[in-house]
Amino acid sequence: MKKHGGRLCSFSPCIEQVQRTCEALTEQGFKEIRTLEVLLRIHNVRAVTLQLPNFGPDSSSQTGPEAMEEAPPSATPDHASLKLKTTTPLREMPGHTGYLTFATKPRT
Fold first, then answer.
1. For residue 56, which of 14, 15, 24, 73 is within the disulfide window of CB 3.0 to 4.6 Å?
2. Cα atoms in the Cβ-side hemisphere of radius 13 Å centred on 50
3. What are φ and ψ of residue 91, in 5° steps?
4. Is 21 helix (H, G, I), strand (E, B) or coil?
5. The pTM is what?
6. Containing H/E element for 104?
7. pLDDT tens for each residue of 28-87
8. How far apart are the C-alpha atoms of 5 and 104, rounded to whole Å?
9. Separation in Å, CA 43 to CA 88, 92, 100
10. How does DSSP assign 81-99, residue by residue?
């Protein structure tokens, strides 16, 4: 390892090891010590089609009584739709967590 300055990344499978690692890094003069939890999450991806609502004609563009005699919004059979992909996580998450610890050793 470098003797003067640099970055370190450590993977630890349990929080007790993270605590010991952070204590040792502090004793060795490391700063900006940050730990993130890493957990694999599997998601189900599926395509869905959503019907866009038909709110009827724009009332600000209509004037006069003839505008009121148009067909109601439900009479138009072709509603626009939107196709998109969505995800949902699995209900049960088999697996194990881990932790990444990052630290900086200042240059001396």
1. 73
2. 7
3. -70, -40
4. helix
5. 0.55
6. strand 98-105
7. 999 999 999 998 888 899 999 989 888 878 776 655 555 555 555 554 455 688 899 999
8. 7
9. 5, 11, 22
10. EEEEEEEEE-SS--S--EE
